[in-house]
Amino acid sequence: MSVSSDTFFLYARKSTDVEDKQILSIDGQLAELRAFAAGEHLAIIAELIEKRSAKTPGRPVFNDMLARIEAGEAVGIIAWHPDRLARNSVDGGRIIYLLDTDKILSLRFPTFRFEPDPQGKFMLSIMFGQSKYYVDSLSENTKRGLREKIRRGEYPGKAPFGYLNDYRTKRIIVDRERAPLVRHAFEQYASGTVILDDLRKFFMANGVCTKNGKMFGRTFVSDLLSNPIHYGHFRYDGEVYEGSHESIIPKELFDRVQAVFNRRWRYSPSEKQAPQKPYLGLLRCAECGSAITGEVQKGHTYYRCTKKDKSRPCKQPYIREEALDAEVTALLKPFSLRADWADKMLLRVKEEKQQAAQSALQLAGQKRKEIDNVNARLQRLLDSFLDGIVERNEYTSEKAKLMSQKRTLEEQKARLMAGRADWLEPFQNWILTAKNAAKITESGSLQEKRVLALKIFGSNLVLDSKKARGSCVKPWSLLVESSTSRLVERAKGIEPSCEAWKASVLPLNYARLRPAFRYCGAADPPYRSKSQPACRAVALRRRLTRQAASACRCASIIIPALALSTSRVYPRRAWQRCFLPVGASWTRPTASMQRRTS
């Protein structure tokens, strides 16, 4: 096939396929090349446009153009500059080879004059080499800039979900609209009550979806929950670096999410929603020790023994959920703390927190020293890596561990500086739970009762003949030792220190001090004879031990009553040596007390 000597392909290229970048590049090239072809009287048989970088081989439009030239459709190419044709050695070598084999007879450039002779080919190869040098140097300059951003703690890339790119400062900032969604997703997954599919639906319900309006996959949620950028660090090129951007979640929450990930490794839950059985995992069978399972029959939930132990036949009957709820409610009723006691205890916890805040500065100084030690280790690790002592894989692994340890220490130091006393939080939570126990027992849901029962009884609840029973754990066992009437409380308990005894209310430690009240007129004494006060005092001394007297926290409860029975026999100081606890003072009985006990 004969080919005209003035048939050319017009080739225009820009380095990116993003429409909002280099908008005028293609249009400008086409206008200039058309005018150049018209001035040179060149016939253009096709205008080829490509939006792809020439740094690496593999451009489809460029490869198709060379194939058509080899097939004889044209004899040359019109382009704006040689760097539009090739910026790598492979594509540049292909064009020079086609010139050597006379497949390409001419190359025309408005900005560069080329002749198909040895000198022209030599100059063309120099231009191709210069184009490759420009790409390589640009890559190195870009990498240098990225390394500088990393040293400053700036994330060198497109902002992940929850952040936005600030094009003025070239940094990432928190997306105030989506950051709460990220925080909620971390909190929900850390609780262990949701799975990845639940978070996918949560994001979809809040308008977070793909460009096609579809739900994100599990990989999106998994990558989101495992990205350290949300607590202040970022991962780049396989390494973890300390960032200067604002964090969305604390490091402690991120660690709890990773712990849930480790427990659920290779776990794939089904999409089917199982019926709610709140009391599953709460009780065990009292006869064979097997677990209690639940099943739904005719719209009602029944609980029964699984009877997995075939060596021990179990004859325990099933129980309906409503009846089991009544049993659990009856077990939970005694475990409640009076509101006034709870308020006093919470006030004492607040005072303890204030005292703990005073020592927080000293502990924060210790954390600062530990952080300095970690920084020193990081510097030594970097020096070892630069000197070639440590391999890159070992360096990145140890650096990630030290960076995580440093972040944990910094958060601990921040909590100490804020005056938080974490060791008091469990006790405060227990007081609040005990205070709300009565409300949960009366009007709480089945799930709330189950959670409260697990806190009180642990794994000690059993089901025996449709009856639930079990022993509580500490510190809930202290509440059981108090009377259910709330008018009389034993000495061994958790109640606050009592005030002076009033005649209308029995003392809190009346149970241990009962002998004293019996012999002081509260009941008929064993010795009726009023002429034998010494015998009465001796009997009282035998029955009321020093331990019972020491357990009395308020001396005014018992001392006046004891003094009425012993003041005639023993001197005051001798009586104090027999009955008063260490540090207590003797109080003379008032006239009203003498009248009541006479």
Query: How far apart are the first and last residues' alpha carbons, in Å?
Result: 140 Å
DSSP strand tally: 14
Report helical residue fraction: 40-55%
**Which residues form runs of ≥5 with pLDDT under 50?**
267-272, 482-598
Which whole number gives the mean pLDDT? 76
Tally of individual helices: 22
**Going across the major beta sheet, what is the strand order?**
2-1-3-4
Q: Provide the structure class.
A: alpha/beta
Shape designation: elongated
Q: The biggest beta sheet, please?
A: 4 strands, parallel
Structure explained in plain terms:
By secondary structure, the protein is an alpha/beta fold. Helix content is 49%, strand content 10%. The protein has 22 helices and 14 strands. The strands form five sheets. It has a four-stranded parallel beta sheet with strand order 2-1-3-4, with helices on both faces. It has a three-stranded mixed beta sheet with strand order 9-13-14. A hairpin with a 4-residue loop joins β5 and β6 (171-174). α4 runs antiparallel to α5 (118-151) and α11 packs antiparallel against α14 (425-443). The longest helix has 34 residues, at 118-151. The protein starts with 6 loop residues before the first strand and ends with a helix. Residues 267-272 and 482-598 have low confidence and may be disordered.
In short:
With 598 residues, the protein is of the alpha/beta class. 49% of the residues lie in helices and 10% in strands.
